[in-house]
Amino acid sequence: MKVIGITGGVGSGKTKLLGYLQIHYNCRVLLADEAARQLQEPGGSCHRQIVKLLGEDILGPDGYLRTQVVAEKIFQDKTLLAAVNAVVHPAVREYILGQIEEERQRGNVAFFFLEAALLIECGYDTVVEEMWYVHADREVRRQRLKRGRGYSDEKTDRILAAQLSEEAYRAHCGFVIDNSREITYAYGQIDKKMGEYLWEK
Question: What is the pLDDT of residues 3-61, one digit of tens each?
Fold first, then answer.
């Protein structure tokens, strides 16, 4: 089983490309953000620790974290943000390593794709065998965020400014998918790359 990390800036189209991989190839796809959400749900390994850090008022009537309240608290206080990250990031990493090992033991899939916006920043290059970068031109991403998520230009600017530079992504990733054009163009690049792996076998 080959373990591949996929990263890229917001609006680059990672989710759609991962969906394509899941349909057309014998693989498991794991989204780090989704794993983090599950671990913060009631019963998850991070839930009580976060409540202890931020207070009972972050809980809704159902026991789930009120994400808006959590966001307000941690972004007003950088020490709280660091404390929450210190709980969540190691737990997510442990979960991901466990899932990779489980898939290896099962032996049912040929590829394991790990998607994480912070793949590089959180050091997942030591976990995966190869890293892919999904690139899309800045203006294309801006339009996607406006159409698909209703983001204002100001919000988009803030998000883009906080992400890694194009050079940093390319320096860490061995394969770049250009997703600035029609989606079939990106699919073709994936098919070519996957064909190389399957040919090697």
Answer: 999 999 888 889 999 999 999 999 999 999 999 999 999 999 999 999 999 999 999 99
How far is Cα 40 from Cα 43, in angstroms, rounded to an integer? 8
- Cβ distance 186 to 17 under 8 Å? yes
CA atoms within 13 A on the CB side of 41: 6
Query: Is the distance from CB of 85 to CB of 75 less than 8 angstroms?
Result: no
Q: Is pTM, for the whole model, over 0.90?
A: no
The residues facing 156 across adjacent strands are: none
Contact 32, 141 (CB under 8 A): no
Q: Each residue of 80-125: pLDDT tens digit? A: 889 999 999 999 999 999 999 999 999 999 999 999 878 888 888 8
Positive/negative CA dihedral, 142, 148, 154, 156: negative
Identify the DSSP state of 59.
B
Q: Cite the beta strand spans of the chain per DSSP E.
A: 2-7, 27-31, 111-115, 130-135, 175-178
**C-alpha–C-alpha distance, residues 113 and 3, integer Å:** 6
Helices (H) and strands (E) in the chain, counts: 9, 5
